[in-house]
Amino acid sequence: MEKHIKSANEASEKIIEWGEAHDYTTCFERAERLKPCPIGSSGACCKVCHMGPCRLVGKNAEEEARGVCGATLPTVAARNLVRMIAAGTAAHSDHARDMVLTLLAVANGEAKDFKITDERKLNRVAEILGIEFGNGRNVNDVARDVALKLLEDFTRQKGELNYIKRAPQKTQERWRKWGVAPRGIDREVVEAMHRTNIGVDHDPDHLLTHGLRTALADGWGGCMISTDISDILFGTPTPVKAEASYGIFKEDEVNLIVHGHEPSLAEIIVDVVSDPELIEYAKSKGAKGINLGGMCCTANEVLMRHGIPTAGGFTNQELGIMTGLVDAIAVDVQCIMPAIAELSKKFHTKIITTSEKATMPDAIHVQYDEHRAREVAKEIVKIAIDNFPNRKKEGSHITDKFPVIAGFSHEYIEYMQGGRWRASFRPLNDAIIAGRIRGVVGLAGCDNPRVPSTGLHRFLAIELIKNDVLIVSTGCGSAACGTAGYLTPEMALEHAGPGLREVCEAIGIPPILHVGACVDNSRILTIATAMAHEGGLSDEIAGMPAVGIAPEWMSEKAIAIGCYFAASGVPVIFGGESPVGASEEVTRIMTEVWFERFMGALHFEPDPEKILELALNYIDKAREKLKLRKYEPGRFGTERVLMDMAARRELEKSAKPT
Q1: ω into 510 cis (within 30 of 0)
Q2: Coil, helix or strand at residue 304
Q3: pTM here?
């Protein structure tokens, strides 16, 4: 009988097998046992009022099925998707609000453990917002004005988000034509929840159009704001070398993991773990030092800026505990499984919640407060140190790890193509125009235990770069590539097509660029905008040879991201079955109607081979429409063979005239 693989990551699979042998349950076993509801998973269940839940099923459900109120299947499916968009937008944007308030506290001198780290990025944002900077103006005064201006984006009732003006002019015109330019972030989320309430909006297209407006409030609002403020406060990422997978845990040191999505506390912990006093305290408990690592998107934040190693993405959190080496995990918000607190009781690991928005039974709560951030960070580190002597021998003790190069911000990608004074996206555009690079794919989204976890990311990453497609990755997509050893320049030599390899060698970059956490998908939007402004390709984001792929998505945040890319003009493909697949009409709107209006679309496809085919087809059709040279596999470069001296002499001999 063929062995059922639960994770494509060999180290994860070893831990899963070890856990099963010791009767430990993880998300992988639960996913196997708990089958998805076939009605709810396809969007055919409505539970927005107490007359239901209504199951809209049957032979002719699309035309004939009705809820108790009379709602049709397309209406119900559209409502369900819009609610997912609203929830995802709320998650990213609430994170962004906290970042704005932290920036304001720093500017007002109320959060003394933080400072403005990247004044140049602050000035760049100030310029976009029309705020005066330079000429001797105090940096904190500029930061205060920036924070107050960005706070407007949450509460504005009329008009447009501040960052809408960052998009190409033609993209903005599309949004205004179809009524999707977002006003205020909170306004769009609240209206989405109102429209999807019982007895309000019943037109599927009308509902989905507002869903796109809500998603754009996430992409060009919450996500972009969060990315910019994180760069201003903690530094704009530049390439760093780090390590990934469970081998980052050290047998003889205190292992503390930061997990979640908000970078503020994690930034202070990065600083605190090198405090000589705390290192001495760790030694007094029998440890040789303090080892900090990350998981999920908090990992990406500190990896990008400080080279802190990552233990991986979403599905690795329980497995990390099962190594037996993690002394404490400090969590904040989003993608944190409540199962880790229960599992931790069977080991020695302490789970520490830190956000007033997110607590869980069986965890220690240490309330984070930016006004005393260093004090809170020290308390968390001490909990981990005090727990080191309680470490048991039991655990899988996996040692696999891989090198990672991360830190490719918009600013660095621009810089690496021409230096500080001639920074531009011209070389990238030219490489696409010439066909050395066939196109660009944003490989993002979560990893999911309902498939061989991280396996779809890995398959698509290899196949895309073989086909000369440059990848920009974020979130757990980056973690999947990192824990597979895919985030190094050497990867280009081994797997990339000859045209992409030539470009990577010339610039000195990997073929997969780790650009950050899931909120940092906004970096991809600004990169695409810069490429449009550079010229030679499309004069808007729409029409570029670019595709977004989230092959293992599971979070509502991923739906919001996919929709803001679709509305911005990028075709997006999600793996797995469609959450609105019960409705042919909703599927048609998301694929055909959105493409007609925005040149973006949202597809759901469970077959990874078909995901690859669809992505390459979109890229090639975009090249054809832009009248670019037809992509020809292998046209650039020839296979390079390393020759020994004997082979060289033979070559020289044959080259001499007879």
Answers
A1: no
A2: helix
A3: 0.94
C-alpha span between 384 and 256 (Å, rounded): 6
User: Which tens digit of pLDDT belongs to each residue from 430-486?
Assistant: 999 999 999 999 999 999 999 999 999 999 999 999 999 999 999 999 999 999 999
Residue 168, Cβ neighbours under 10 Å: how many? 21
Hey, what amino acid is at 158?
K
Structural element, H or E, at residue 382: helix 373-387
* pLDDT tens for each residue of 260-305: 999 999 999 999 999 999 999 999 999 999 999 999 999 999 999 9
How do the domains of the chain map onto residue ranges? Answer: 73-234, 246-390, 402-625
Architecture of domain 246-390: 3-Layer(aba) Sandwich (3.40)
Tell the burial category of 316 from Cβ atoms under 10 Å away from its Cβ (0-12, 13-18, 19+).
buried
Distances in Å between the alpha carbon of 220 and those of 93, 181, 478?
10, 10, 22
How distant, in Å, are the alpha carbons of 257, 298, 321, 467, 642 from that of 515? 21, 13, 27, 21, 33
Residue 635 pLDDT exceeds 80: no
**Residue whose C-alpha is closest to residue 213's, from 165, 161, 169:** 161
Confidence of residue 652 (pLDDT cuts 50, 70, 90): very low
Task: Report the relative pairing of strands 546-550 and 512-516 from DSSP bridges.
Answer: unpaired
Contact (CB, 8 A) for 390 and 348: yes
- Please list, in sequence order, all residues whose beta carbon lies within 8 angstroms of the beta carbon of residue 657, skipping any fewer than 6 positions away: none
Distance CA 155, CA 146 (A): 15
If we measure between CA atoms, which residue out of 544, 465, 594, 567 comes closest to residue 214?
Answer: 567
Q: State the pairing for strand pair 240-244/402-406.
A: antiparallel
What CA–CA distance (Å, rounded) separates 574 from 325? 35
**CB within 8 Å of 655: residues ≥ 6 apart:** none
Under the banding of pLDDT at 50, 70 and 90, the label for residue 637 is low
Nearest CA to 30 out of 395, 296, 337, 297 is that of 337
Same fold, 246-390 and 402-625: yes
Confidence label for 658 from pLDDT (cuts 50, 70 and 90) = very low
Q: Is 402-625 a domain of CATH 3.40.50.1820?
A: no
Task: Report pLDDT for 640.
Answer: 41
Q: From CA 174, how far away is CA 569, in angstroms rounded?
A: 9
pLDDT of residue 607: 97
404 and 241 Cβ atoms separated by less than 8 Å: yes
CATH number of the 73-234 domain: 1.20.1270.30
